[in-house]
Amino acid sequence: MTALPSSYEAVPYPDFVHPRTNPESIAAMVRLFGVSAACPLGEPCRVLELGCGQAGNLISLASLFPESQFLGVDLSPGHIAAGQLAIDELGMTNIELRQGDLADFPTPGPGDDERAKFDYVLVHGVYSWVPEEARQHILRICRDHLSRRGVALISYNTLPGWQAKGLVREIIQYHGSVHPGEPLQTVREAKRFLADLAESVPDSTGYGKMLREQFQALCQSDEAYLFHEQFEAVNEPRYFHQFISEIEAVDLQFVCESSFAFVPSQSAGIQRRMQSAPLLEREQTIDFLCNRTFRQSLIVRSDSGAQRGREADSDAISELFLSSEVSCFDVDDVPLVDSLPEGEMRIANPDGASATLRGRSTMAVMLRLSQIRPAAESFEQLWQHVLATVAGCEDSNAVRTVLREDLLQLAQVSMVRFHTGPLPLTHAVSAKPQASQLAQWQAARDNVVTSRLHQAIRLDEATRTMIGLCNGENGLEEIITGMMQFVSREGVSLQHEGQPVTDPNLLRTLVAEKVPANLKNLAEMGFLER
Ligand SMILES: C[S@@+](CC[C@H](N)C(=O)[O-])C[C@H]1O[C@@H](n2cnc3c(N)ncnc32)[C@H](O)[C@@H]1O
């Protein structure tokens, strides 16, 4: 038995949702690399999460894929109790939580049913934070419990990026030990100490710059998260190549990352090396280029038939669905809504990253995806759309190939996402919009609510109220009335022509004007069900 991590009883780990652990996005990612995994959008899957914490991640997945079965295991009684309470209140029947040590997770016997194995094993935020013995159990469970088509996601802290973070952790640990009664006070003191240090070391030195960057990163993190990041007894970051040796030693095999890495601009020398290097060597070089701190690697059994070191193949896109968060603009930065521009087109992500497109068929696809955002359409549907909207576009394999290659490149810079089917959400607001039961339950309790894109989003009071009103029974009039009640209950002051509004009729008119746009916004964030 590994020791009970009582630190998690003193300070529960925040209940995060990890978008890249979504089995449907994992299935699409590995498909590009030649692996045909089960997909919960089309068939019931079995999903195991090791070290599931308070199970927020697993609960969101279980709500997205009601036909699939989910099992979460965690050593912390407090985490499991919190997760179970949520499951009971939600009345979910496709998720089971077990309190226990990874070390005690049973090894299947020779006669055990292959159907009892898992299509997905998720291990997020655990591998680097447990002793060697527990790490070996994680790998054993992946090897023994993955089905032949199964995929595991293991996240881990990586070098060289953790070199600087590790140094700060050592400074913080030297500075103070944990106050038994007030663990979060320890975090606050550690932050103050680091702030003093960062202020004293001149910016002109590399060391001063590093301290300041690390301090700023610390300031953006949740205190409970920081407590565990800085004070857990074990934290062993590793190089990607070390991780590969560890998994290959137990007959597991790397396929790809759960998302494409942002690779900064490269010198001619690095470009030459990257072009000729095999996949695993290139992945390690990317970590050196990006000073990477974290990976979420996708892994299969060595006997799965997957080819080691296989490259992404744009041909696979023919079988996939695509979605995008981008908005489209013409050369003068005028937003494009329904027609292609004469010349180039600029696309921009919500985070500000942008790209310029020149190919007409790629422009047509991206404009279509921006119109149906955040929903997904199949490559085939998008191709038919290209033929219908791009004058003179030839229906040939050569043009389709160029389009697929363009789309793969756009995915590599986070402008496109791949899926294995239509997403369980709608971009169109129906007459009686419906938010998921989970979103309604969360919105009534907390300001962080999980979307149908498996993303946790911080919302204001008004948006939470609107999610509660989107129960599949209320039409537009009832939602407007509900928002009027919210405005008067909360004492929200609306302005019209620079004056506060007191006339109830004008108030209703103003609220009624805003509600359709707000509902559209909910749909764009992925909160409305199909
Ligand atoms: C850093 S938290 C990560 C929680 C969650 N997976 C996430 O990424 O948000 C690590 C979790 O692993 C659990 N854990 C640590 N050692 C364990 C063990 N030997 N067996 C089962 N769970 C363990 C802890 O209780 C804790 O909930």
Automatic annotation (TrEMBL):
GO biological process annotations for this chain's record?
methylation
Pfam families documented for this protein: Methyltransf_12 (PF08242), MethyTransf_Reg (PF10119), WHD_PKMT (PF21782)
Q: Is DNA-binding found in the keyword set?
A: no
Describe the location of the PKMT C-terminal winged helix domain by residue ranges: 432-526
Give the Gene Ontology MF terms in alphabetical order: methyltransferase activity
The identity of this protein, by name, is tRNA (Guanine-N(7)-)-methyltransferase
> What residues does the Methyltransferase regulatory domain cover?
223-301
What region holds the Methyltransferase type domain?
48-151
Xref: InterPro entries: CFA/CMAS, Methyltransf_12, MeTrfase_reg_dom_prd, SAM-dependent_MTases_sf, WHD_PKMT
Q: Which UniProt keywords apply?
A: Methyltransferase, Transferase
Q: What is the lineage of its organism?
A: Bacteria, Pseudomonadati, Planctomycetota, Planctomycetia, Pirellulales
